[in-house]
Amino acid sequence: MTTVSAGRSRPAITLAVVLLAFATVPMSISGAAVALPGIGEDLHTAGAPLQWVMNAYNLTFASFMLVAGSAADLVGRRRAFATGSAVFAAGSLAAAVAPGVVLLDLARALSGIGAAGVFASGGAILATAFDGAARTRAFAALGSAAGVGLAVGPTLSGWLVGTLGWRATFGLHAALLAVALTGVGFVVESRAPHRPRLDATGVLVFVAGLGLLVLGAVQGPQWDWTSPGVAALLAGGAGLLVLFVVLQSRSAAPVLDLTLVRDRRFFALCMVPVVSTFGFVTLLTYLPTYLVGTSGFSAQRAGTVLLLMTAPVLLAPPLSGGLVNRGVSPRTLITLSLLMFAGGNAWLTVISPGGSLTAIAGPLLMTGLGAGVSFGVGDGAAMSLVEPQQAGMATGFLNTMRIGSEAIVIAVYGAVLVSLIETRVGSRELAAKVAAGDLSGGGSAVLADGFTHALRLALYGTAAVCAIGAVAIFAALAPPRRTTTTAPLPPEPARQPTKAA
């Protein structure tokens, strides 16, 4: 690795800058969701244009992640991080002053591109700035930062919307990234030793392919999954991604080095956030709707209940990082976390309309603890398997799997819920309203029973996915036979980067 010094190296400031940015990016996702009703009322919009305040961000976030990571390796991780932060801040500021929903949607798409730059290069900065036990602690802190953003986002946004209006939410995100930018000068620059031109064709094909695939998943519930438009989007996206793989196998300077994907342990670690999406993120998305619709909770109370699941995400990563530094295998902790997802989702089937909070407290805590145990540890273990010159590419691919799976799995999960509710209420239109928390269509007890039945079946399904994922990932993380003397997924020994002026 070639490390280019720029200003003074301050590891503590480097960590603080990256953590602040990493907390803000998920905050912009969960916080914006709370602001949607206020946006719709103020801008006199509803339906698809309003929903694209979320979709535009998620679409560009997922599509540009891998590209941002590969570009960071070539142009410099600090430069990519600073550029991504600036773009995110500019998009958030534009969203705060947008006079109409179309410009707001475009501003959110711009923020998503910036968020991709922040996530792809931020993890790579930590991977190259820290080694050994310090790296494990840094990635554990990164997991906590992401948990803070996810947990605090709805509460903070709700307070801002209620006191200053929805525009203050996006203004806050811009201000936080502006603060992070003030510390970028203390981050040491690093890049790959060889800097070929970025594969522009590969970039275009990948962005278009993943973009079409995510767009198809997002539009599936709105257009109907069997519609020609959705089929065309999904088929076109899948076809372009296959073409991308073919192009990368022949490229001298690929956007994605396929040897990374062929490494079974690295790929298994990239599948951890995909399984986490099934076991954790789906509950964050749909459980509040269930509590509001069937149990009559206010939005604020539903958000408070979710603290049972999000609080462990803030507290557990440092604990699991400390266990790794004391010799506990990341393979063991990651498998345990996925099994906790399975157990928590299966246990949560005790849920019922008007049920007591104590009945669901246990499964929510178990699920949240599972997320907290794996957050940070999985990312750190993955980066320990990667050559330093590929840190940005590896981080980009890892987060592409994370964000891309969230967009697709959440859309599919919602469609499954609607279909299951439809079997009880007899109308797809009514089922869609129930899944959105609206049980005002008459016979609320019957509708609540239909929602409960559907959610329980979905929970059993996600529990099965998590259990199967735990077994498969545990097997894939076994150390190679030819290196049986090497501990599985160790925090790699400290290395001293070579500095060049």
TrEMBL record:
InterPro entries: MFS, MFS_dom, MFS_trans_sf, Tet-R_TetA/multi-R_MdtG-like. The chain crosses the membrane at residues 51-68, 80-103, 109-127, 139-162, 168-188, 200-219, 225-246, 266-287, 299-320, 332-351, 357-382, 403-421, 457-478. It is a multi-pass membrane protein. It comes from the Bacteria. Keywords: Antibiotic resistance, Membrane, Transmembrane, Transmembrane helix. Residues 14-481 form the Major facilitator superfamily (MFS) profile domain. It is found in: Cell membrane. This is MFS transporter. It comes from Streptomyces lavenduligriseus. The lineage of its organism: Bacteria, Bacillati, Actinomycetota, Actinomycetes, Kitasatosporales.
